[in-house]
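Notes from the pairing session

We agreed to fold both candidates in a single pass and log them together. This is the raw record for the first candidate, unedited. Please don't reformat it; downstream parsing expects exactly this layout.

Candidate A
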Amino acid sequence: MFKTTIKVIGGIARSAKKHTICYLAGMILFALFPVCSVLLIKNLVNHVMDLVQGGQPYIKFLWGVGLLSVVELLTQITKYSNSYMEQRLKAELYCGFSDKLLEKYVSVEFSCFEEEHSRNIIHHVGSAPQEALLEYFMTFFSLVADFIEIFGYVIVFFSLSPLFGLLGTGCLGILLCLNFKRVDMMAKLYDEQTDDERKMLYLDKLLCTKSTLLDLKLNDAIDFVHHKREALSQVIWKERLLRTLQSQFVYASGYMSMVLWVSFVVIYVIYEITHGRLSYGIVVALISAVQSIYRCSECMANDFALILRSGVNVRYLEKFMELPEVKKVKNGEMVDVQGRLQFHNVSFRYPNDPNEVLKDVSFSIEPFQKIALVGENGSGKTTIVKLICGLYQPAQGRITLNDIDIFKLPSQYLHKIYGAAFQDFSRYQFSVRHNVAISSVERMENDSEVFQAMEQAQASDLQKIIDKPVGIIEEDGISLSGGQWQKLALARAYFKKGQLLILDEPTASMDPKAESELYASFLKMMRSHTCIVVSHRLAIAKQCDQIIVLDKGKIVQKGSHDELLAERGLYQEMFHAQSQWYREKDG
């Protein structure tokens, strides 16, 4: 906790040094003013009693009223000043930290989004971790202020009796220790329930998303999903209820010590008053201090609980910032973008998966070649594409471009080489133009190039709404069909004009004829580019120079369509099976 506190304060202070100092000073003053008020009230009551008895002039009473008024005024000014500083700190933190956070998100290794432990960390961080930092920061200083205020009240009790001061300090320590245990119990529960929370969010999304809700309604499966959600909710609720009851019992034990101490103080004060050994001012001060110290101890316990809970979120943020990042090569070697791409005995497995997805894969792609990767689901086609794009590094072997390891190429240079359209492409709810030109934003206003890309993707019908918003974010957003979204994804890949075009089944929902025509048009226009096509439909492979057939992570065949069809093997079996399917469908 100490290290976390230092990191949080240091980080926020670097973003807003002046406002941090002002906020700290304000919180200290805000803690001291209530104690000053109690002491001033004590003197004021004594002055009133002296006036009643005729033993003191009015001037001391007026001075007491004036000082008390000044303290109360300063208290309010400090309160509003602290609120202002909170907003300034929030603004400074959002401005200074958001860029750093976004930079981290885009730099995290792609594998972290597929590995369970890392996904849990990203889930806990959420979309606005600045809130956790700011909450921790402000709660910590609120806790410091509580300590200062209680310390002032304890001094009042020490002046009455050292025994009461020591007992109060001990009871307060017991309360804080038990409260720490209570919060630790709840924090462990929240950590244990991370997986269940992610599943709950997924089920909620199923019941709130247009596409899935339509599918569930058509299949009369809403009750099924709802029951799964209710069952999971019951598990989470029961675990939290039990743990909450246990933690509250621990917390109540700590408060009992404070109640006993306050009871002793009240009994003592009553006894001393009946024997005339306490002045009225001290009695009023003690009663006020008892009420304030009880209120303050409750605030401190709550702040302590909050800072521990915020500390959990801050530690997740620390873990997030420590996630491995993609290694950026700033001054690597430059190569001819039209060079030979080669896999040298590449093997790969996904995080926490004991099985190899690729096993000793070797092949080469010559400049301007059109390559088809074919095979059943899970054969390793998409994994090869991810490796080529640099999203993963091979466990064994190398991937080279003109004999240079692609992971030694400058990052910005490497990204410009590829243009890609994937099956799970993004649907940006911006304008049609933005959906096409986001792959090369510097040419976004070039209408002729945007229109050309749309024509090649057979999306010319969308040119008339080129600058209209699509999706549901904007009030006048236009809804597109699945096929129209796919065409925009293909136009985006073409618009980038990367020297290596990768098409990983982005047209999966199109009918075979439309898909074949679209790919034929693309491959014709991309004669001056190298192309890699991933598809289940082998009719497309006929249009490629070389076909690589994968089975269970291994290359089992390589060659042209005619060569592979002439030899017995998996490709021949797949092609005849698909041909039979089309004949049956046509019949």
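Candidate B (folded immediately after A)
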Amino acid sequence: MNASNEPVVELHGVRFTYDAGATWALDDVDLTVRRGEHICLVGPNGSGKSTLSRVIAGLVAPDAGHVTLLGNVVYDESGAHAQAYRSARRSIGAVFQHPEDQIVTTVTEDDVAFGPENLAVAHDEIGGRIASSLDDVDMGDHRASDPTRMSGGQQQRVAIADMLAMDSAVLVLDEPTAMLDPRGRNGIMRVLDELQRRGVTIILVTHHADEMEHADRVIQLESGHIVADGPAEERLRMPDQTIGLPKRIRDMRRARNEPAVEVRDAAYCYADGERNVFEHVSFTVDKGETVALMGRNGAGKTTLARMLCALERPTAGEIAINGIAVAATRSNGATKTLGRKDRRRLRETVGYVMQHPERQLFAETVAEDVAYGPRNQGMNAAKAAERAMQAMRMLHIEQLRDRSPFGLSGGQQRLVAIAGVIACRPSVLIMDEPTAGLDEEATARVHGLIHELKSRGVTMLIISHSQAEVDELADRTIMLESFEARKNTDGGEPSDAAGMSVPAGMDAEGERGPLGRLDPRVSMIATLAIMFSAFAIGSFRQLLLAVAFIGTVLAVGRLSVRRLIKSVHMFLALFVVCGLLNVFFVRSGSAIAHLGPVSITDDGIRVAALYSCRFAVVIVVGAAFLATITPTAMTDALESLLSPFARFGLHVQEIALVLSLALRFLPTLGAETKAIVDAQAARGGTIETGPFMARVRAMAAIVVPVFAGTIRHADNLSLALDARCYEEGVDRTHWRVMRLRRRDGMACCAVMAYLVALTALGALA
């Protein structure tokens, strides 16, 4: 312990409510934390740990009481004091439960730099902080990677690095190791120990008893009250967890029974990546067997689970579940698509508990959500409700039946998601880290459920990072190694790069090619000029020039046309179709054919073809621009270009930030929508296999959960910006320094020459 007598956190009589006082998440909490202490907050799910951590981090104000943070009185009987909160947050770092909501850019080093930029740290010092913080969390090799494409565990490491780079005096972490493998967990705890030795105060929310060994004090909460506060060695009634040896490593030879799951030579590569996540994966799970799937963060465990559920398609190999051919490779190398009838059979056979339970909930009440699967199996309302109640009783959550699933704690949501799956009575159950984030009691419920299902003959595949859990539950263990890890066993350096895809336009080293090295202001202006000039193309000679120029640009930039088109194929198809519709509206020229009263003319065909090609030019140019620039660079460029308008009252910095966050979070919302669709499909919903109108109604039904997800992301984003000390109108430094160079001048000249030539051809027409 490296504590002095100086208090850094003082709470007196703190109360906090989410429902206008109907219940209290925190009730009359008194707490003092002194500088340099390492505190663990423990307690059951829903006890108020996360709420207390946010109050301590200065991210939310209580409804009553007194709060003093780092000597700043931020809340008292007169209410919240905004300036005091801003001052305190500059020295308090916060790491959230869900790291994907804390990441604000699509390049790791830019994300780590965001906090120091807001603190106006000097440029050279920012570079040092980026390097040291990423090295501390074993992510130094991923500076140029896209954190939004990482595994949950890798995202958590980046989120921790984000806070380390801000050099905070107090660091508040809400279950930062919940999604990490054992090596990652140990690494984070070593980092926290080192930070404490430097004098940093650590406040850690955890369910892991072994993490309490690092603490000076353990504070236990129940129902919003602190019920115990004492030295870590007392354990506060928390049982020790033992780490045992795995029962059996890899797919060892054994007596074979009837297979339930068969995977042969499976491989997977992200659609926009150049490297495999894994390859040559083969294993069999017999009926009634419980098998654990383990491996490092990013090894592809979740991807493999989704492949077994036909929610992802392997790039090679074969998969069969209870004789249903989920995936098979054709002679031409393509994978066979699962038919509608077989897909429905698969949904009735396989249950899937997802890694993020909040994305698997979509009904208005817990009871309705759990009954969703049974209703899709053709049960009437009464029978489905009875089946749902049985599932809830198995997990002891029947008291939650009338509550909204969106208002539950993360642990409670996980239990509801599990109940919704087991209510379908699957014969094969796949569970992706089913006890991550659960307290001791809830974990025991899930373990008891798994034992009960095993006694009923259910085949189970459980993804877990807990060796103790695997020892208790599994008959054997399959270790999944990443493609990169297997390559490195042959003499290369070890790597955590499993599944790390490189954005379109980037090379393997993370550089965005010659076009990406241009000043972003030049790239933005040049792109807009080329896109707008495309609408002036009125002849095929001009179109030929545009195609030749853009083709040259793509070649110089070493951009793959195929990958670009694939990234925007939906927009491209939409606009091309819109262009082709001109064939029905142009009346000039000679009639070639007639469709009822509508004449199709040669001019109509010419205009339709020209318009379609113009739209294609615009879309491809836009895609090339997005492939060679980061949201951060785009934000900085827009802010710089709009800066002259700041004197007229335009909020330039905020406009630029909104653009950056939109580019960052629109894909997140797309992923949220897909996750809800997948969750409905996995429980037999008609969104995937029903008649056309039933599928339309099912699509309409996802509006409410997507809206709820949007609100949740917006709330978390607001907290993330506060935690990273972003303030409107303050002076910021920039890690990415924009400078005009010779190549920028050459690019401007090339674009100018193109525009002149395009104009000249138009004059000759």
